[in-house]
Amino acid sequence: MAQFIIGSLDIEKDWDAYVKGFDGLNLARYIEIYQNAITKE
Question: Which Gene3D superfamilies match (predicted)?
Fold first, then answer.
C-alpha cells in the first residue's frame, strides 16, 4: 500500500493487481476464521 502512497504504483493501473494479490494469501479464509473467533466469545 505504501507504494501507492509514495507514487511508485499508479492507483488506476495497478490497484486491481494489488487487490488480486490478496487472493493468493487466502484472505477470505482468514477473515472467516477471525469472524468465527469473534462471534464465539
Answer: Periplasmic binding protein-like II
The angle formed by the CA atoms of residues 17, 4 and 8, to the nearest 5 degrees, is 95
Task: Write out pLDDT tens, residues 11-35.
Answer: 999 999 998 888 888 888 999 999 9
Instruction: For cell 490497484, name the residue.
Output: 15
Across 1-41, the runs of DSSP E, i.e. the strands, are none
Question: What integer is the mean pLDDT of 34-39?
Answer: 93
Q: Is 9 left (phi over 0), alpha (psi -120 to 50) or beta?
A: beta
